[in-house]
Specification:
The chain is mostly helical. Among the domains are: 103 residues; 158 residues, no CATH class; 163 residues; 133 residues, no CATH class. Helices cover 75% and strands 0% of the residues. It contains 28 helices and 2 strands. β1 and β2 form a beta hairpin.
């Protein structure tokens, strides 16, 4: 059966089935089922329960009573009815009664129901078949209808397309007709206006200078705007016609003469009308009637685009016509007449003045925006007038370009005062231009106009800057010279050489002076950066200004080194002056005293020169640091500028390096001269040939050695402080070599015995320990070899041959030292060693 495919309403179908079951049980007729019972929400359990429940009422009641008496529980039927246990039924009813008496009735009911259900299924199948046929037929009709509708819609679209094309064509035709109508209307309007203009032109063409017979339009103050517009159109027409006229044609010539009269009359009328409007504009301006001013300005804009009205308005501003305003500007910036203005006061004055100008322009801008139809053009004229008249007048009084041939003296500020004033004025005026640009200046190139105000000064600025640096340098040298003169005069009458030494000490190189040079240059570079906007121009100007610094520093330190060298030269001259031969004891004592004075002067000049070298190095370091921090970054944007400046710096400083090198050579000469004097005065013959008196040998250094080492320690302290790096190493190495050579020459004058050899070795050790502070390996090696050479005076004659087996390089010096032995002749060392030297060589 296919019952599970159908649905029945649960509650209604149950009621119907109960009624039909009752009638069927009474009459024993077959069960009748209706198709409607299966519609809606169908439940098979409900259908089955309704069929069975009517057949089991008495059985259910008996089962329930038996269960209550026996206390036997029942179980619920699946359809909701209570089913008693089969064991309980057997005990209550007995084995003689049927187990389920209604089974036949139910079986019959089920069979009848099955037959009814089969019949209903056949009815439903028949109905379904008929519905399918009907649906198929209707679907075919529907498809046919849709096909016909599609054809109809396509035709409708074609009709709409033709209609749209037609509408478009009609629209284009209508637009053309509209254009023609508009053109015809414009032509009609133009013709009407032309007729009116010709009528007015004939009035102006009546007679020259006769403006009395004109239409009321041209004399009615309430119609001034219309009259101005018509007058301008008539002038344009007449002037254009005169321009097209051909003089050779009689008619054209006549027409031109007639129109020339009209043009003259129109010009006269326009001038009179413009003057009348300007007078009304001025009257309204005095009363601050902005609406009347705006009306007049709008009408005047038809005359030369309103240029006359704009210029007239700007020219009548109080700051351009009031003389007191100009005088007030001068007093505010330059101070009272006759007083010397300083750059700081000028800066404050310009700031105040330019703020006042900016505020005034801002107030005028508010009026201009409310009055003029083209406010940007008026603002352009106003700002231009401010810069060209008010600012320029002030700058002409403030900036008076000095002469480079006869510059102003330093007492009056010199060229530096002009340059500082120029920088202050330029910077403040640039700020003013930016403020005016913010307020509004139309299409005016206010920055370019501001630059043009300073063009004459900027063109010659580099020359003035370099001349100012030279003037400052010259003034500084004069100041230093004057200070030196005062010191010399205050020292009183002293010796010529001593006075020169005192004056020289007060003319030493000063790092503070070089720092001042750099400060001047730094200030100049700041102005150069301010005035030079292009990188190439800036680099060229910076290089020129920095070259001035290099020249100044080089000349200053070179002169300082040369002055220090002069002291060394004077000390050397003093030494040579008192080198005497064999003279009396009295004269020798005086010469020795003078030699001591010369030695003191030499030591003082040595220290002075070392101080000069130290300050020279510090000055060069300051310049190099300044170049690295401030100059190089300005030169890098231009190819080759940085390298060229570095090369120029090295070349310029080479002069000072040459003077320093010569001075250091003189220092070595001075030191060695004093060493030789000390050795000559203090070294005794008995120092190295003490008598053999049985006394213990003296292991102390000789007095000469002690004096020399003490002198060197004292005087070279300045060199250790002043020199550094390779310069220090080269100087000490050269001095060590000269000291080694001088000691050898000194010892060649004496004869040595064994105890004297020990004393010599003690001196060599003392010298060696001192020169070890030079940190010069080559010098240390030479003094170590001297210690070995000193052994030739200590060993026995027979041991000399083996003394230099490990150091053959000093054999030549050893030959000379051996000749200084006290027993050289007595021990016949010459013949004994000659064969040894020849065989070993």
């Amino acid at each position: 059966m296919k019952l599970n495919m159908m649905t029945i309403s649960g509650l209604e179908s149950g009621k119907k089935m109960q009624e039909r079951s009752k009638s069927s049980s009474v009459s024993n007729l077959p069960l009748i089922l209706d198709i409607d019972d299966f519609k809606g929400d169908f439940s098979f359990d409900a259908l089955f329960g309704n069929l069975v429940n009517e057949r089991l009422p008495s059985f259910q009641e008996e089962a329930a009573d038996s269960a209550d008496r026996l206390g036997i529980g029942g179980t619920d039927l699946p359809n909701g009815h209570i089913r008693t246990s089969s064991d309980a039924t057997k005990f209550t009813q007995g084995l003689s009664a049927p187990l389920f008496p209604e089974v036949d009735v139910l079986l019959s009911l089920f069979k009848d129901s099955c037959k009814e259900l089969i019949d209903l299924r056949k009815q439903i199948d028949g109905r379904l078949y008929n519905l399918k046929k009907e649906v198929s037929t209707q679907d075919a009709k529907h498809r046919k209808t849709l096909t016909e509708l599609e054809k109809g819609v396509d035709g409708l679209f074609d009709s709409f397309a033709r209609l749209d094309s037609r509408i478009s064509s009609v629209g284009q035709t209508a637009a053309k007709i509209g254009d023609h109508l508009q053109s015809a209307d414009a032509q009609r309007e133009t013709a009407s206006q032309t007729i009116e203009l010709i009528k007015y032109l004939m009035e102006f063409n009546s007679s020259p200078g006769d403006l009395m017979e004109l239409s009321p339009l041209f004399s009615d103050d309430s119609r001034v705007a219309e009259a101005a517009s018509i007058a301008q159109k008539l002038r344009s027409f007449a002037e254009e016609d005169i321009g097209r006229a051909v003089p050779s044609v009689v008619g054209s010539a006549t027409a031109s003469r007639g129109l020339e009269v009209a043009v003259a009359n129109l010009q006269e009328y326009c001038n009179e009308l413009e003057n009348r409007l300007l007078a009304r504009f001025d009257a309204a301006s005095q009363r601050r009637e902005l609406s009347t001013m705006s009306e007049c300005a709008k009408i005047l804009s038809q005359f030369n685009r309103g240029t006359s009205a704009m210029q007239h308005y700007v020219a009548t501003r109080p700051m351009f016509i009031d003389v007191e305003v100009m005088n007030s500007d001068t007093r505010l910036v330059l101070g009272d007449q006759g007083s010397q203005a300083s750059p700081s006061n000028v800066a404050r004055g310009l700031s105040s003045l330019y703020k006042e100008i900016t505020d005034t322009v801002r107030k005028e801008a508010a009026t201009i925006m409310a009055v003029f139809p083209s406010p940007n053009d008026v603002m352009s004229i106003l700002v231009q007038r401010v810069l060209e008249q008010r600012v320029t007048t002030l700058l002409d009084k403030l900036l008076v370009k000095p002469s480079l041939v006869n510059p102003p003296p330093m007492e009056e500020g010199g060229l530096l005062l002009y340059l500082r004033m120029l920088a202050v004025a330029y910077e403040k005026t640039q700020e003013l231009s930016r403020e005016l640009r913010a307020v509004g200046c139309g299409d005016l190139d206010v920055e370019g106009l501001t630059e043009s105000l300073f063009s004459a000064h900027k063109d010659e600025y580099p020359e003035h800057e370099q001349a100012s640096l030279r003037q400052l340098y010259q003034a500084k040298l004069e100041e230093l010279h004057a200070e030196g003169q005062k010191v010399s005069e205050s020292s009183g009458t002293i010796g010529r050489s001593k006075g020169a030494s005192v004056a020289s000490s007060h003319q030493q190189i000063s790092v503070a002076v070089v720092t001042e040079f750099v400060r001047w240059n730094e200030e100049a570079i700041s102005r150069c950066t301010l005035f030079s906007s292009q990188p190439t121009t800036l680099a060229a100007n910076v290089k020129a200004i920095f070259t001035c610094l290099l020249d100044q520093v080089s000349q200053y330190i070179t002169d300082g080194l040369e002055r220090a060298r002069d002291s060394l030269t004077e000390a050397a001259a003093m030494r040579e002056k008192f080198v005497l031969g064999s003279v009396s004891r009295r004269v020798a004592a005086a010469a020795a005293s003078a030699a001591e004075a010369a030695a003191a002067a030499g030591e003082s000049s040595f220290r002075s020169f070392m101080v000069a070298v130290q300050r020279c190095g510090s000055s060069v370091a300051i310049v190099q640091q300044y170049f690295a921090n401030s100059i190089s970054r300005l030169l890098l944007p231009v190819d080759g500028a940085h390298a060229a400046s570095c090369e120029e710096m090295a070349t310029t400083m080479s002069t000072a390096e040459g003077a320093a090198y010569k001075g250091l050579q003189q220092c070595i000469e001075t030191v060695m001269a004093e060493v030789e004097r000390l050795l000559s005065a203090e070294q005794k013959a008995t120092d190295y040939r003490s008598p053999d008196d049985g006394m213990a040998p003296d292991h102390r250094p000789t007095n000469a050695c002690t004096r020399v080492v003490a002198y060197l320690s004292r005087v070279l302290e300045a060199a250790f402080t002043a020199l550094e790096g390779l310069n220090k190493q080269a100087f000490l190495t050269e001095l060590g070599n000269r000291l080694h050579k001088g000691l050898l020459n000194n010892w060649q004058k004496f004869t040595f015995n064994p105890s004297g050899g020990l004393r010599l070795k003690r001196d060599i050790t003392e010298y060696g320990e001192f020169v070890r502070s030079f940190n010069a390996p080559s010098v240390d090696e030479k003094f170590e070899l001297l210690g070995i050479l000193a052994n030739v005076f200590i060993v026995a004659p027979e041991s000399l041959s083996t003394l230099f087996e490990g150091t053959p390089s000093i054999r030549k010096d050893a030959q000379r030292f051996i000749q200084l032995r006290e027993d050289y002749k007595s021990a016949r060392l010459a013949s004994r060693l000659s064969s040894l030297w020849s065989s070993s060589s």
